[in-house]
Amino acid sequence: MSKKENALRRIIELPDTFLARGGDPFVIDINGLLTQINENKLKDQKKSLNMESAAINSVSKVVKEQQDWVIDALRGLKLDPELLRQKLSAMDIKKIAQITSNHTYPSIGIHRLSRYRIRVALEYFGLVEPWGRREGLGPVQRPEGQTSEFFPMEKEIESEAMEFYDELSKRLKGGTIPYEEVIGKDIMRLRKAFYVAYLSSNGMISIRRNPISGETIIDMPVEGEFESLAIPLG
Amino acid sequence: MRVWRYHLAEQPSDEELKLKADKVLKLLLIEPSSIPGMKGWELKKHLGKDYLSAIKVAAVQAEGLGMKIAVVPDEDEPENMDRARFVIMTKEPLSDLELSRWMRIEEVAGLAILISEITIRGGAAPVQAVERLLIAKLPKWRVNQIISKLKRLGYIKEENGLIMKDWRSKLEIDDTGLIREIITSKGETDKQ
């Protein structure tokens, strides 16, 4: 018997010799066996095909043994695989996510992206040539007068926003104010939210989020960390 | 005449060790990439050869803040600490879904479905099989996005057409507890 034939024969007999004696099916390297089958093709094609198919059959027996072992283990934990699949298929995704978070111990890390990096990224974005026939975005930085053309704004609303700012800046001298308190709950809520967005985009106020409480607060713009940055695009 | 000088390796003082431990916490907390934590060799570069002693002190400091430092061994060289990844994680489970902002609800649910199927199948599930399961719950176009995001974040990996748990699932998710709660939960099923 040739070496190659011998190797295939060993794989064919594996389930009887190893598993029948109660060996641990996970000790067997399935990928390794498949590689061996591929590497030990015989010159006699007919014989090779017979032996290869018998060897693959043996490998499938080992895989089946591994699968049965897992199912037994799950049943040992009083977990039925089919029941688990049924439960998941019937469950709402929010419920599944909630259960997952009950058993998640997340790794912690702080992601930071400085204003400087955002500015650099946007400047680069403005320089990148578009694909195909599309027109480029043009320069990111524009003269002040030109920028206003791209921000259509009724004069009336703008003056209202400035009135709102005068009042807000007085209140902000006493310290930060929660966003919800600023926009209120009355009929003017949406309009005030727009003023806040407009003033913030012009760098006149800062909007911050408290990472611990999740509360959004409004502050006067300060140099450095929380300074609002208006970047006109397009 | 040639004079040979022998230097005994100096142990860092308590003060030095404390300063290095502070640095360990800073380095582990501020993520340089989308993958949390740092490799042993990176910490060694910042802290010197005795970085493992500094990590032990940092672990005690983290304990007081409700956190712990976990070690993720390298798959090829599990004994080599230089190749292991060191990660800061919470001591208690997340519980509040609102806090899991690095993933969307359907991504968390997708991960649970994948982990369950991988466990049922003994550690690896064919890609097509898990895709079928996810498509039953989520739009098809989202399924591929979710799978690639989970791969990118280190929760799952794909080898030879099989999906397996990656280091982050093994580290962050108590799969036995997860499966038990799914099996024993009641109500709030899909209304489809």
Describe the structure.
- The complex is a heterodimer of chains A (234) and B (192).
- Chain A has 234 residues and is mainly α.
- Chain A has helices at residues 3-17, 30-39, 45-76, 81-90, 93-102, 115-127, 144-148, 155-172, 179-183, 189-201; strands spanning 177-178, 206-209, 216-219.
- Chain A folds into 2 domains: 3-102, no CATH class; 143-219, Orthogonal Bundle (Arc Repressor Mutant, subunit A), CATH 1.10.10.580.
- Chain A has a 3-stranded antiparallel beta sheet with strand order 1-3-2.
- In chain A, strand 2 (206-209) and strand 3 form a beta hairpin.
- By secondary structure, chain B is of the alpha+beta class.
- Chain B has 2 domains: 14-90; 97-184, Winged helix-like DNA-binding domain superfamily/Winged helix DNA-binding domain (Arc Repressor Mutant, subunit A).
- Chain B has 8 helices and 6 strands, in the order αβααββαβααββαα.
- Chain B has a 3-stranded antiparallel beta sheet with strand order 1-3-2.
- Chains A and B meet through helix 3, helix 4 and helix 5 of A and strand 3, helix 4, helix 7 and helix 8 of B.
* Bulk shape of chain B: elongated
Secondary-structure element string of chain B: HEHHEEHEHHEEHH
Helix content class of chain A: 55-70%
Q: Kindly report the greatest chain-chain contact and the residue count on each side.
A: A-B, 42 and 61 residues
Question: Could you tell me how far the N terminus lies from the C terminus of chain A, measured between alpha carbons in angstroms?
Answer: 77 Å
Low-confidence stretches of chain A: none
Number of E-state strands of chain B: 6
- Count, helices of chain A: 10
Helix/strand order of chain A: HHHHHHHHEHHEE
Number of domains of chain B: 2
Brief account:
The complex is a heterodimer of chains A (234) and B (192). Chain A has 234 residues and is mainly α.
